[in-house]
């Protein structure tokens, strides 16, 4: 069996030396990958530049991911080849398109002009006290996965901050239906600290709780294999 796991975070370049990224470490993706590798399954790990990685293995292929575009390109290539996709990567919602001096923006008669501009220098000048950065919304990669392989078992992730369980489950089920996922792992940032990582594997029928990263990996591993075997027997 082949499993594709995304892990860590993306980095969207502003210029050759600056970028927008996030604090994702890839530690959960690493643990999940190790579960499948230990059981003899082949794992394709699409990992952000600073993501924690499993030890080398004949059953592991690691591909370094830079930005959302490179993630999408590799998903399109590898998702058709696998049985399970676990999309745990923290993907940037926006990409920079243009950065400029605040004065240039303040004196402009048409802000729309900046949406079609690009920075030509490899390193944007830092002389100005204030800069304005224009961002463009990225496509949601999870929404494309079932297009690349309609038969793949898909586990998506949803991270919120300081919400009720009712809202957490509601948002997870919206993502479940919208993206045609089989499961969404829903968690709240306020429940992740000091070795604790409380979250819920949500599907059409209910929610299953896990309390640590190790329990999350076990839950996802066991649930996806059971589903795969059920579909094969069906």
Automatic annotation (TrEMBL):
Keyword ATP-binding appears in the UniProt entry: no
Pfam family, one: DFP
GO biological process: coenzyme A biosynthetic process
SUPFAM superfamilies listed in its UniProt record: CoaB-like (SSF102645)
Boundaries of every DNA/pantothenate metabolism flavoprotein C-terminal domain copy: 2-97, 116-223
Record's keyword annotation contains Ligase: yes
InterPro entries: CoaB-like_sf (IPR035929), CoaB_strep (IPR011848), DNA/pantothenate-metab_flavo_C (IPR007085)
One MF term in the entry's GO annotations: ligase activity
NCBIfam families in alphabetical order: coaB_strep (TIGR02114), PRK06732.1 (NF005231)
Descriptive protein name: Phosphopantothenate--cysteine ligase
Keyword vocabulary terms for this entry: Ligase
Species: Floricoccus tropicus
